[in-house]
Amino acid sequence: MVLGLRQFTERRGDGAGEPVLDTANGEELMYVQPGVAIVISSRPPESPGTLYISTKKVVWLSDVDREKGYAVDFLSLSLHAVSRDPEAYPSPCIYSQIETEADGDESGDSDSECCKILDLSKVTEMRLVPSDPNQLDTLFQIFCECAELNPEPVDEDEEGNNWIFSAEQIADENGDEEDSEWHFASNPTSSIGHSNGEHDLARTVLELQINDDRFEDAEEMEHHNDRGHH
C-alpha cells in the first residue's frame, strides 16, 4: 500500500459514474455525498465534485472534469474531525491529516504550490467541504465507522511482545517438581492470562482459581458435617 493522497480517475461505465472499487478483495461502497468541494493543503478549493466513501478509502471525483479525482486510503488518514471554526477555515468541513512516505521537509511542497504544481506525495492536509453543512455529522460518522474497519497493522515485534500462554506452558517452565503446590490444567488450549512477557498475571489467576476450589471444598465439607449432626 502506498501512503498518502493519490490521483484517482477510474470510473465505472462510460467514465462518468462511480469509482472502480476492489470488490474482489471485499471493498464496498458505504456512502455517496454529492456537492462536495475538496481543499488540498492551502490551495484554493477544487471545483465541486462527489464524495465516495468505501470500506477501504475516500474518493473524490470532479463533476466538471472527468479526468480529475483523488483518493486516500483510511490507513493513510491519521486524523479526521469536523471543523466549524471560521478562524480555522471559512467554511464548515471535514478536516483530515494524511500520512505520507515523504520526509518531514515541507519546503518542496511550498515551492510546488507557488509553481501551481501539486505534489501529492507531500500533501499532509485535506478538507472536504459539503455544500450542505448539515451533512457534516453524517460524514464524520461514516468516516469513523470505516476507519474502524481499517485498524493499524500490528508490527511483528510488537505482536511478539503481546501473547497468550497456557497453563501447560507455565508448568513446563516451572519444572516437574512433585511437591509443587501448583496444579495446572492439562488442556493447552485453555488460555488463562495475557502478558507482556511476565507470568505474574497468570499465576495470580491460577492462585485465585485454586483458592476458589479450596473454598468450595471447605464449604462442601462443612455442609456434610452439618448434615451428619442432625
Can you give a write-up of this model?
The chain is α+β, with helices and mostly antiparallel strands and 230 residues long. It has a domain at 5-103 and 117-149: PH-domain like, CATH 2.30.29. The chain is 28% helix and 26% strand. An eight-stranded antiparallel beta sheet has the order 1-5-4-3-2-8-7-6, covered by helices on one side. A two-stranded antiparallel sheet has the order 9-10. Strand 3 and strand 4 form a beta hairpin. The chain is globular. Keywords: Cytoplasm, Nucleus. Belongs to the pICln (TC 1.A.47) family.
- What CATH architecture of the domain at 5-103 and 117-149 do you see? Roll
Question: Which consecutive residue ranges, at least 5 long each, have pLDDT under 50?
Answer: 105-115, 162-167, 180-211
Radius of gyration: 29 Å
Strand order across the biggest sheet? 1-5-4-3-2-8-7-6
Provide the CATH topology of the domain at 5-103 and 117-149.
PH-domain like
User: What is the share of helical residues?
Assistant: 25-40%
Strand content: 25-35%
| Assigned CATH superfamily of the domain at 5-103 and 117-149 | Pleckstrin-homology domain (PH domain)/Phosphotyrosine-binding domain (PTB)
* Strand and helix order: EEEEEEEHEHHEHEH
Sheet with most strands: 8 strands, antiparallel
How many H/I helices? 5
Indicate the CATH class of the domain at 5-103 and 117-149.
Mainly Beta
The average pLDDT value, as a whole number, equals 75
